[in-house]
Amino acid sequence: MKNSTDQYQLTSDELQIDEELMNSDDSEQGSDEISEVTQLSKRAYHMLKENLVEEAEKLFQQILQAYPKNNYALVGLGDINRKKRRYSQAVKQYKECLSYHPSNNYAYFGLADSYKAQKKLPEAIAAWQKYLEKDPQNITVLTRVADTYRKLKDFRNSKKYYDMVLEIDENNAYALIGLGHLYFDFEVYESALTFWEQVYRVNPASVDIRVLTSIGNCHRKLKTFKEGLSYFLLALEKDKNNFFALFGAADCHRGLRQYEQSLAYWLKILDNDPQNKVILTRAGDAYRVLKDLRKAKECYDRALEISFDYYAVLGLVSIHKENGEYTEALDKLHDLISRDRKNHRLYIEAANCYLEQGYKAKAIQILKDFHNLGLHNIYVKNLLDEIQN
What we know:
- The chain is mainly alpha-helical.
- Among the domains are: 1-135, Tetratricopeptide repeat domain (Serine Threonine Protein Phosphatase 5, Tetratricopeptide repeat); 328-389.
- The protein has helices at residues 19-22, 31-49, 53-66, 71-83, 87-100, 105-117, 121-134, 139-151, 155-168, 173-185, 189-202, 209-222, 225-238, 243-255, 259-272, 277-289, 293-306, 310-322, 326-339, 344-356, 360-372, 378-388.
- The longest helix has 19 residues, at 31-49.
């Protein structure tokens, strides 16, 4: 599930501008001047909301020509630069605003988002925390801090801020989804499942499809494939071509050893994305298990036409072995070994091919080649002992 908690894209106008806060430090202005600036600023923010960016920028510049320290205009220009993805310039303008008006929360909000866009995550957190000093229960900002700590792999602080949101709103979807991602990232799948299921229970009819696929993915990780399949099927009712739902359904059927059903979903993905190398390999595996070696080979070959794929080559090795083509299988295995010298499975596969050909000495030698790399593996050792004895 992709960043469901990152759906806030608020500029300062969407935070409902508070005129008293925005103008609290403009002591050099008279009441008439403040009224004039307020009207111009409202017009500019309305233009910005309507995506009339250039017109809004001209109005903000007009304000700054008369009042160089004006809150509205400095924050507004910061918002415009952020909208245009000129984040360094946005940071400069938000900081300029804060140098005159250190309590301006809209500048802190924009500054934090600009740092986040530049992947300067600790700086973003620091700016958001300054915002929270004046507005400690702002759910939008609390969630953003939690999300950012999650991206920094800081479990304790991320959970702390998500929990702060849930103290305010126990069913807040963004916090619950974020906690699900947090626990999933740390491979605590049972806990991740709990949070995502809570989101689903609150509003099952209109739950986001990404929540359904996330629940399904937890079940895949826990190997409770039957339960996972039910959520992927619910997701497909919302979007019959959703890649993650199709992939999850296919993989759950594979986990349940229902290879025909699994293949149907792999092929559905290929209808939409015929050059997907991973899916071509999965389809090849399904055909091979179903003993349709011709179609399996076609899928593996198509995958390899796109680029080298380890699993596609292994699939072809298996086909060669089933056809008794041990020399061809060994050619491919030696190529794989040259690319991945520490993979014990390749040496065991090669040794078994040599044994099928009656080349006991070659089987022993290739297993010793693995040990000569200074590597030790119980499966290699057991096969070597079995052959030698």
